[in-house]
Amino acid sequence: MTTKMRAAVIDRYRQPQPTIQSVARPTMQPHDVLVKVMAASLNPIDHKTKDGAMRLLLHYQFPLILGSDFAGEIVAVGSAVTTFQVGDAVYGRPRKDRIGTFAEYLAIDADDIALKPKNLSYVEAAAIPLVGLTSYQALHDLMDLKAGDKVLIQAGAGGIGTLAIQLAKQLGAEVATTTSASHVELVRQLGADHIIDYHQTDFSTTLHDYDAVFDTLGGKNLARAFQILKPGGQVVSIAGRPDATFARQYGLPGWKVGLFKLATRQLTKLAQQYQSQYQFLFMWPSGTELAKLTMMFEQNRLRTIIDRTFAFEQLEQAMAYAEQGHATGKVVIEIGTQASI
């Protein structure tokens, strides 16, 4: 049995693209499973990690294997694992200090995975974990959306947006979204009730009395989001700056809490001005919540939108394509074809 595997590695921050190298297979802990990775999806956090943009929150040692979610087959289980067995088809999002899904094998805590939806291929399933959990946690856990609530989901044709629209509709919300003219029909099919062509219209001039905004863009779009909220409304952002509340909950030292408080003072003022709330979301792995998504996919209540699929050997092209930010849905790389060790 070989102890080596291929993996996409960076040796320093701001390396133009990762290189596929031969590295040692990961070692397992008692609560881990070892997975043969069949497919993995690309996410903005991969580019941010590569470029060092997450250094205030995440500390990595080099060489570092990139990749934040996957679908694959279990080939070994740790001594303390009772919920999964060899041969199970699973998917998941590893903890932030254990990323590395752009590889032939991955060791991951069993609490962070769920059984793959039976009606989806590995490629389709790999497109779900990070965007699915992010959307679920934003809309369900933080916003607590209820039937009849009005929510704006920014960038409806993107990786997050295509799934968030569907989840919001499953929760009974009235959904508005922003997109380009070429994607209007897609987001309508996904369930969007109100569609705004951001090239033609400023959403803050046409929407009002909204309960929540799911911000995936940051910048001016985030600042404008407060203008459409009713009193007591909330903005949940994955693209804005972390605030002091998040920094404290994340366990950051006092000087970083102060730094984030200073950096988000304008957002704090906007939230006060519009009698609303701002929350920064840094999603967390959860096999339990992923299992809920599995059920929804198997019941055909949700579907995946995949823009392009690349071979593992084409990772450099895949990352360059995804980095442009124009993909419709997700970009996925195929890594393995059989689970043999």
UniProtKB/TrEMBL annotation:
SMART domains per record: PKS_ER
Record key words, sorted: Oxidoreductase
Entry EC no(s): 1.-.-.-
Key word Oxidoreductase present: yes
Residues spanning the signal sequence: none
Gene3D superfamilies in the cross-refs: Medium-chain alcohol dehydrogenases, catalytic domain, NAD(P)-binding Rossmann-like Domain
Matching InterPro entries: ADH-like_N (IPR013154), ER (IPR020843), GroES-like_sf (IPR011032), NAD(P)-bd_dom_sf (IPR036291), Quin_OxRdtase/zeta-crystal_CS (IPR002364), YIM1/Zinc_Alcohol_DH_Fams (IPR050700)
The keyword Oxidoreductase is annotated on this UniProt entry: yes
SUPFAM superfamilies cross-referenced by the UniProt entry: GroES-like (SSF50129), NAD(P)-binding Rossmann-fold domains (SSF51735)
Domain Enoyl reductase (ER): 14-333
Molecular function as annotated in GO: oxidoreductase activity
Protein name in the entry: NADP-dependent oxidoreductase
Species of the source: Lactiplantibacillus daowaiensis
